[in-house]
Amino acid sequence: MQRNNTVYINALNLVCALGNHREQIQEQAVRGQTGLALTEYAADRFQYLARIASSITDIEIDKKFDSRNNRLLHTCLEPLLAVVDDLVQEFGPQRIGVVLGTSTSGISNAEQAIRLTHQLGSTPDSYSYHQQQMSSVTDYITHLFNLGGPSYTVSTACSSAAKALISAAELIKLNLCDAVISGGCDTLCQMTIDGFASLDAISPELCDPFGAQRMGTNLGEGCGVFILTREKAEITFNGGASSSDAYHFSAPDPSGSGASTAMSEALNVAGLVPEDIDYINLHGTGTIQNDQMEATAIHQIFANPPVCGSTKSLTGHTLGAAGAVEAALLCYTLVQNDNHYLPAHVMQSEYDSSLPDLDLVEMGRQYGQINHCMSNSFAFGGSNSSLIFSRTV
Questions:
Q1: Per-residue model confidence as pLDDT tens digits over 280-308
Q2: Structural domains for the chain
Q3: Does this model's pTM top 0.90?
């Protein structure tokens, strides 16, 4: 019998600055309620940041894994613990994989340890180098469930989680796994905040994706976790593709060629044509160059682009977790959305008329049933990924 290679989202959960429950997050998103707030992140240094206000677990965690990042990961996993336990019983631990994206891991713990070392003259007992390793997120889940399947972390900056989801689906299609825990998790750290500021990529005000007065992005933290299997479910992970144009270390290729390649290939993998896509979650950082490139790339693929929107003005740019955070918002939109509202595209100024036209989400407008969604994630170094999720028929 031919094996079913269709991959479904059997369970998922999202924790971000909008909340930690689906209903709460959806309500905030369609109302355009931002999780961004002016925040002091270092002594007398302020930025608009989207920190997670909801409680992060305080359970006992082995020192090797004990970071804010892994605690957020565990918080996001908690509603899915029973699902994973059932999969272990059904398939065995060797048939369950783990593929996650991150870019910060536990770096904030290292920053704190360095400060305390300078103050006290010795490294605090609470610190372990493994806390800041990129592998820490996947190692923690593998350890938590005693899994034996493929386990690795993808760290390609802001495309990390999107690429992790593509890799997770391939593990199932190649029959290397029967189920994969995937997604992404990133928490804020001073190194990343200062790094983006040094590139003049941070807006001093609330970000303004595709706005005429846009000045940069705002950073945030978040975690999205997905359980992928072949078992039919409400949401189909219908395709995903990546490209690497390597145009510049941090600036996107203004021609949009790498981004359009990722979108085109994602459609091919999904067996869809541009006209099938009902909604695109844009990467939409609010930086001058990214928004120009993305609007250009959209028009290279879509003769008449569908309704689009960026959610970064709501959640902040969650970096290595962005692909998972925004994919989770798409999945929430695909199911249990009887009012047919989409996550709001919040702008601080008028649309930049120098950009190719995009039909941006209007807050409060009902859009009808959404069947196929695309989500874009574009990263430093020309790392581009596009994902497609569909309502299962």
A1: 999 999 999 999 999 999 999 999 999 99
A2: 8-391 (3.40.47.10)
A3: yes
